[in-house]
Design a protein that fits this description.
heterodimer, A: 202 residues, alpha/beta, Rossmann fold, 8 helices, 8 strands, 23% strand, B: 378 residues, eight-stranded mixed sheet, two-stranded antiparallel ribbon, 16 strands, 18% strand
Amino acid sequence: MTAAEQALLAARPDFGAIAHWVSPGARVLDLGCGDGALLRYLWQAREAPGYGVEIDDDSVLSCVENDVNVLQVDLESGLSLFADSSFDCVILSQTLQAVRHTEGVLREMLRVGREAIVSFPNFGHWSARLQLALGRMPVSASLPYEWYETPNVHHCTITDFEDLCRRLDIRIRERIVLHEGKPVALIPNLFGSLAVYRCTAG
Amino acid sequence: MNAPHDPSSAGAVLAQKAHFDAPLKLRGGAELAAYDIAYETYGELNAARSNAVLVCHALNASHHVAGFYEDNKSNVGWWDNLVGPGKPLDTRRFFVVGSNYLGSCFGTTGPASINPASGRPWGADFPIVTVEDWVEAQARLADRLGIERFAAVIGGSLGAMQALQWTLSYPERVHHALVIAAAAKLSPQNIAFNEVARQAIMTDPDFHGGHYYDKGVVPTRGLRIARMIGHITYLSGEAMAEKFGRLLRRKHLGFDFDIDFEIESYLRYQGDKFSTYFDANTYLRITKALDYYDPAGDFGGNLSAALARARAQFLVVSFKSDWRFPPSRSREIVRALLDNRRIVSYLEIDAPGGHDAFLLEDPRYHSALRAYFANIDL
């Protein structure tokens, strides 16, 4: 692993888990792909070709600079560009909490992809609970925004997400819960700050 | 505009002409026995001949893409803000070719050229030419220039149709296609505007069924109305409101039919200017070429099936304020490319310029083109 890769995985520990679930050569779609770092990583690590969906102008430009295929469309208004089951894997990496039409996006992901990989910061982590108990909105490494400037609109806990999956008939195939890049086995909804799921249609 | 001393200008350029004797069979069935193609080049073709970029022009433009003419320094190329040393399409790295389409009035054989069969201008007898025919002629020019494969073919609007068609007519000869402000076919509304423009020309008493060259007249009135109509569709309503609003040209409403509003003055000016340099027979043919273009036509309207032949990597760019070829039309192309698992990026630029935004220098747009060209392996 190069120093750049190590730095990337330190900054985005969910990338390693995601790459673990993407089979070599799989076709991937990354929703809210930012500057395309995950797609580049998946290409290097798994030779998985893919496209990113991104709405922000600066991020789209970064993707073009990084030679990542990017499609500047609003993922909230549906993934109508993509045919049914046209991807092996559709990824929503730390974007779920900023999505408005959560149910619609999750359904669209499993229409377009055979599998969905979703990661999000766990609002049930003890530090968030503690800050709320002390009367403050949580701010942490995985929730780095003040309440008045956050792009996040739909925070959830591990238990909340799994409830929604049940309701939407989404089958959870695997789950990895992390804190500071390391797997958490004990009471994940309390000690995990980042959750990563591999899901299929039920 | 770049002053002649500007180091990022392609500098003084020369228009060139290539003559072709091999007959060209046109999509409409007619055949051109011989023809000239006017073109310009910027930069140097590398030893591997791998750095050529073809720039396809739209309706009223020409092969004069960049730089200026030594004897007329104010005649700057139509895409000079994109093409030149250090510009997004960098002529220090790429060999850029601008080619004038068949039927033009700027040097390539067209209706105003002499018909060898009669010794008089072709006029109405010049055949209807199509986007497919243009690509065919450009391919012969590429052969002549020793270009086996283009690093990229780029165009906006009608030029984008040519870039797209290149990937279908010659899939192996295009590495990258940059398809900007495009539509894979005209909408009925687009065709309707074209028909009004054609009617304006053909009902001008000076049109003489297209044989006006002999009579020493030009259907100026028709041509200027055609241009005024076209111009309305190139600008967004928003840009028009911003630029002109309801500003008056004179102090008070005149209660007559002289110019009241600035927008009227602007349209008349554009129409007048255009009618002095553009040929009416060419205008008629270009609008038909636009109307007829529909690569999905032979595939039961299935664009995905039509684009299955394409092998190029694509950059598709649309502009939100473009109501002539709005983003939804570009997304049809992107979707068809995705259906075929082609490598494609798509940008939807929130620029106010309308259809003409592809000619403007929006920083997001130009930065993306610069980055895209920089990543093309030669």
